[in-house]
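ok so dumb question maybe but i'm new to this and my supervisor (M.) told me to 'just get the structure for Endonuclease/exonuclease/phosphatase domain-containing protein' and walked off. so i did the thing. is this what she meant?? sequence i used:
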Amino acid sequence: MHLTNFQVFTQQGTNAFGGVLIAIHRSIPVQRVTTFQNDYNLIVLDIGNSPNQIQLATCYSPPNENLPLHRFNDILSRNSNTIFLGDLNAKHDSWCITNASCAINYPLWWAR
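this is what came out, is it supposed to look like this??
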């Protein structure tokens, strides 16, 4: 794979399957948000120029770990113009509010 035309951002994970990567074409202005650079399984980038700058966040949430909702709140409070991506293990028990509501209710509750 040739990624010479891309800036590649990576972050180590907390398990053997974890870690995240974002590749952004070099023609797009991008900067890593240093506030989150030491968080495992998480990358946050500023993309574009002000006033139209967006924040891109990608996260891997391992099945045996809680969702980092406090960090999601920190990300959104920094820039509400944010796109969240990632593997959040939606079928894991940590998404459940009740036994009957497992698959997607928890992230929807947080997003409200």
